[in-house]
């Protein structure tokens, strides 16, 4: 085993050393990394990021090109026919995260790693030893240019023990940024990458090995730390590297030692507006692929604030998103995104989805293939009150002549679908055009997370079998729904009469509601503009559609296994700003927000019972409503500055 140690020039810095398993710590004034030149694990400027797993080197290269990205972490997923498959993490190679040059390699010997470093005048940010077969150790490596402003004193080791790492830290004053273990036979060795713990890179930090989850958690809490590197060992223990999460180096962060799938990993990050700074993968004793990760804030200030509102009810005691899906999205029309919290995750939204049916029908009208005054057919599925009938689950078995209704034309059918959320006329649109055609329109509109699968009003229940299945979920996203309103508003999807009809059907509203007016009043007071608050609120204009369900996730038999609620809303809001001449000049925003598959013990929807039947639902709805209005606070503040 080659145990050579490669050093780069460094300044000697005193570093205290304590042994307990292995702990090294140093105390410095912590600084947030202003850019990702050293590495990206203490940088929380929002950026694009991607994770891929089980991919070939060619697939990695393709993704890097498509995303204009650079690798920041490479893991060996498996060896297939002698060639490695990878799990990789990458970031957009621009702005704060841009580096003057970078390279990645695999299948290298330790000596070859050094050769490539010299050839590129580079510095390692990730070194991954792996068994290439037959006990032959090879390395995958990610390196960046170590020149100019990116130059750092640094070092790396491999084929060493934990005590040798400790000695190196003491002698060099360097700080660990990457730590891995590997085995040759029964012998365990470490590889490690360090950076000089000086100047802007100086941080208080610790490292520990052979920790249980409980032990690691205790160490993190005692230190007030933030993990920057995490590795699971074959015996189920963990090696951790952390920095002090305080001062300007304090960020929102999370770690999870066991994800059942890469989908769970990605959903977790997106739900929290977080970016993974470390990903590891392994196969457990049952032969199941698992993932673990460290995450750091990746949202702008407005997104983090909205996350905080949802956190009041939708995060558990450990700060994890275990209480359903929540999303929030706000975008200025023809401009940038202002709030983006999990906005691309597909979820059930109930009747907010009906805007897709509206869009399809009016595009047919615009194409001359349909007419607003043409006859429209729909069906009654229940007897009883009007509300009972309009809210019914459309059961195709009941679409018989006796239940057929022809008292509406197409325009009336669309209006009823949107204004009173009539499920009967919504089903009438599907019967008229077909679900395939409606989905095609969604695709053409760029709604990449949207798919119509079932009749709105039935939720996850199949009326033919009275069984529940999430395969019946109508998928869409907060961003997709907002996009419809933006592209109609800008006349990209509809023009002329069809565009006007869309806006007429989409529940136009004038003036701010009570909750929104309270936000306007508060923001106006902060600017000393209380006298303008009422006038400002009266000029608010809105269009949109909401949705609401109480349904069930199935158990193994397809019966109701867990009651869940769904609430949603999407649309367009005009916020009044003023020109320098005092003329109102609206700022237009599209929005989407939702909570979906939120577990509840009850629905609280029995009209025969007075009072609050289900406080759990009431509390969730209150938080959702608060977030729905808080979504606009920064936009309101900015517009008030012009008054």
Layout of secondary structure:
Elements: E1 6-7, E2 17-18, E3 23-26, E4 49-55, H1 57-67, E5 69-80, E6 83-92, E7 102-108, H2 110-120, E8 122-131, E9 137-145, E10 154-160, H3 162-172, E11 174-184, E12 187-196, E13 205-211, H4 213-223, E14 225-232, E15 238-244, E16 253-259, H5 262-271, E17 274-283, E18 289-297, H6 301-314, E19 325-332, E20 337-341, E21 347-348, H7 354-366, E22 375-379, H8 386-390, E23 404-409, H9 410-419, H10 423-433, H11 435-444, E24 461-462, E25 467-468, E26 475-476, H12 478-489, H13 496-505, E27 509-510, H14 514-526, H15 530-538, E28 541-554, E29 560-578, E30 584-599, H16 615-630, H17 633-640
Antiparallel strand pairs: 1-10, 2-3, 3-13, 4-6, 5-6, 7-9, 8-9, 10-12, 11-12, 13-15, 14-15, 16-18, 17-18, 19-20, 19-30, 21-26, 22-23, 24-25, 27-28, 28-29, 29-30
């Amino acid at each position: 085993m080659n145990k050579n140690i490669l050093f780069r020039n460094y300044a000697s810095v005193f570093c205290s050393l304590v042994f307990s398993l292995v702990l090294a710590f140093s105390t410095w004034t912590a600084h947030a990394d202003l850019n990702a030149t050293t590495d990206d694990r203490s940088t929380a400027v929002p950026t694009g990021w991607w994770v891929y797993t089980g991919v070939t080197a060619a697939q990695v290269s393709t993704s890097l090109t498509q995303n204009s990205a650079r690798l920041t972490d490479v893991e060996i997923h498996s060896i297939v026919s002698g060639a490695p498959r990878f799990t990789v993490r990458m970031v957009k190679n621009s702005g704060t995260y841009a580096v003057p040059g970078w390279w990645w390699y695999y299948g290298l010997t330790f000596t070859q790693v050094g050769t490539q470093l010299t050839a590129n005048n580079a510095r390692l940010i990730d070194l991954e030893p792996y068994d290439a077969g037959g006990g032959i150790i090879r390395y995958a490596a990610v390196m960046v240019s170590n020149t100019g402003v990116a130059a750092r004193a640094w070092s790396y080791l491999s084929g060493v023990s934990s005590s040798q790492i400790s000695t190196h830290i003491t002698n060099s004053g360097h700080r660990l940024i990457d730590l891995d273990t590997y085995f040759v036979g029964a012998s365990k060795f470490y590889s490690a990458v360090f950076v000089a713990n000086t100047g802007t890179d100086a941080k208080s930090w610790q490292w520990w090995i052979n920790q249980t989850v409980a032990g690691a958690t205790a160490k993190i809490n005692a230190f007030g730390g933030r993990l920057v590197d995490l590795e699971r060992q074959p015996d189920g223990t963990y090696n951790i590297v952390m920095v002090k999460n305080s001062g300007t180096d304090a960020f929102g962060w999370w770690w999870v030692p066991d994800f059942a799938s890469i989908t769970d990993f990605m959903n977790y990050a997106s739900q929290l507006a977080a970016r993974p700074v470390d990903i590891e993968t392994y196969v457990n004793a049952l032969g199941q692929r698992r993932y673990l990760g460290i995450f750091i804030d990746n949202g702008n200030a407005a997104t983090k604030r909205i996350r905080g509102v949802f956190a009041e009810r939708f995060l558990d005691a450990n700060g994890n998103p275990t209480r359903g899906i929540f999303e929030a999205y706000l975008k200025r029309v023809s401009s940038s995104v202002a709030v983006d919290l999990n906005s691309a995750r597909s979820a059930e939204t109930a009747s907010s989805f009906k805007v897709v049916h509206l869009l399809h029908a009016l595009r047919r009208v615009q194409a001359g293939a349909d007419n607003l005054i043409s006859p429209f057919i729909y069906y009654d599925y229940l007897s009883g009150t009007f509300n009972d009938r309009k809210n019914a689950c459309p059961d195709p078995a009941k679409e018989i002549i006796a239940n057929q209704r022809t008292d509406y034309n197409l325009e009336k059918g669309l209006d009823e679908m949107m204004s009173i959320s009539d499920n009967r006329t919504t089903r009438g649109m599907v019967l008229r055009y077909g679900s395939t055609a409606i989905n095609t329109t969604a695709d053409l509109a760029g709604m990449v997370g949207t798919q119509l699968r079932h009749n709105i009003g039935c939720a996850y229940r199949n009326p033919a079998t009275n069984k529940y299945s999430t395969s019946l979920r109508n998928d869409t996203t907060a961003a997709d729904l907002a996009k419809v309103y933006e592209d109609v508003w800008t006349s990209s999807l509809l023009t002329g009469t069809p565009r006007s009809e869309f806006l007429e059907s989409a529940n136009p509203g004038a003036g701010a509601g009570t909750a929104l007016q309270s936000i306007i009043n508060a923001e106006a007071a902060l600017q000393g503009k209380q006298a303008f608050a009422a006038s400002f609120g009266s000029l608010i204009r809105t269009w949109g559609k909401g949705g609401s369900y109480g349904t069930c996730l199935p158990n193994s038999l397809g019966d109701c296994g867990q009651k869940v609620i769904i609430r949603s809303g999407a649309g367009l809001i005009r916020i009044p700003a003023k020109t320098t001449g005092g003329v109102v000049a609206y700022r237009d925003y599209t929005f989407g927000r939702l909570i979906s598959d939120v577990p509840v013990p009850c629905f609280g929807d029995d009209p025969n019972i007075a009072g609050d039947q289900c406080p759990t639902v009431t509390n969730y709805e209150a938080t959702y409503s608060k977030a729905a209005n808080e979504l606009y606070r920064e936009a309101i503040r900015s517009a008030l500055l012009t008054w």
